[in-house]
Amino acid sequence: MTTTDSPQVDDLLDELRRREVRLTVRGEQLDYDAPADALDADLLATMRRLKPALLARLRPSGDVAGTTEVVPDGDGGGRRVLVTAPASVGQARQFQIAQETDFPQVLTVALRLELRGPLDRAALRRSVTDLAVRHAVLRTRFAVRDDGLCQQVLEPRPVPLPVRTVPTDQLDRAIREWASIPFALDREPAFRAALFQPTDGPAGPDPDRHELALAIHHAFVDGWSVQPLLDDLAEFYQAAVTGRPADLPPLPAEYADFCRWEAEYLARPETQRMLREWFDGLPAGTVPFRLPTDRPAAPGVTDPGGVLRHTIPAELAEAVATYAMSRGVTPYAVYAAAFVWLMHDMTGAPVINLIASVANRTDARFDRVVGVFAQAALVIVPVAGVASFDDLARRTSGVVWQMLARQAVPSVVQVAALGPAFTHPPTRVYFDLLDLPDPVLRLPGLEPALARDVVLAGSRGELTWSLRPLPEGGMWVHVEYAATRLDADTLVDWLDRYHRLLLQLLAAPDVPLPSTDDAGTT
């Protein structure tokens, strides 16, 4: 494209946006999609004359693979769409849930980081923008097309970093309300940041204390992504305050590369064969178990969710680790087996189906890529015929290893392979052990800032049971539950029964399994 062509192309693109004409680049082909009567003969002639310049302007620059197009932007600013690429299966599911729920904030990953020390706000603002330039998912929105959901990567634009001064006693609520603002996934990138400065009384805000809040929709980020994101933010900040270029190698892949790989993987005959063999290996007549709830589900009601926390003491967590090592299984398999027996004892179900979050980062190219790679994999444990906890722990361990072998298969595909009984919709009980270290932001000249979750309203399922190791030993149990169906007192009782059961099972793992009503006391 010549310098002379550039103003003409700008004018042409502005006119096409005004007329809601979409352009798409496919190799050397320039396609368009326009409302009736939007294009006249003169405009078509101009498009043909400037086709080489349009191709040069709209063709991807190499940072993200896909097709390039120009569409009217939802914010009225005429922002250019650089790349259109297929959405992943997980993204499509997240988008669907966001359209159906009354609490879309349940799908927002929100973090807060306390920054203590002399903060350079201008440098941090530049760093947040640089972060969105490096990671395309942070400037991506969705579009619904005839062939399904796709991602649209927008051209870089400064990311706002507003600063709000808030009384210290109102800080938690202010951050939670800010993070709860839903994203318009089809009009804007699902990423925003804000800086809060707490203040106490007439003395005014402390210049060396800030809270950085980050919010990203779960369709664009998972737990693994947080530390690479914070590492890159720290490097961009270091570069901004020193005036040197950021010392970051190019990313070996983009999230769009994963989306294409996933589509190819799911189409492979060996993937289909693995799913058939998994289904054929389940007991005949396997159906989802039903969680005993205090109230039936209310049709059409989205659950606001409730939260409880419990601590497994260090000596019990150590006993679990010792037992796991002696039996050649993982601690997760031990915790999960005890939970399976609790659910079986309360329901009598011969098969207990759980959901486990898995990282799905088996390809090293994606280690530092921000995106949603994690899957919600099914853990289906047959309980009928187990003779002891030793037997149940080994059985659960085998199921977990099978689950890890198919971790790249999205949960909706796994559910579809199980047939109608699992697709209308079954009880969703998550049981996770999150063993990633807590993400930390290390900005030069400031104290290390631990990333803390901002807990927002909403429930992913009927019950979510998440275990995390504590730095001082022990295990922290974070429970989310459907508050319209379960009472807090019920969950307190289940936590207590689980705790007592775990003690009893480890004390006598080779005897017949007990009822949780008779699991003794701590």
TrEMBL record:
InterPro entries: CAT-like_dom_sf (IPR023213), Condensation_dom (IPR001242), TubC_N (IPR041464), TubC_N_sf (IPR044894). Pfam families: Condensation (PF00668), TubC_N (PF18563). GO terms for cellular component: cytoplasm. It comes from the Bacteria. Residues 9-58 form the TubC N-terminal docking domain. GO terms for biological process: amino acid activation for nonribosomal peptide biosynthetic process; lipid biosynthetic process; secondary metabolite biosynthetic process. Residues 85-410 form the Condensation domain. This is Condensation domain-containing protein. It comes from Micromonospora pallida.
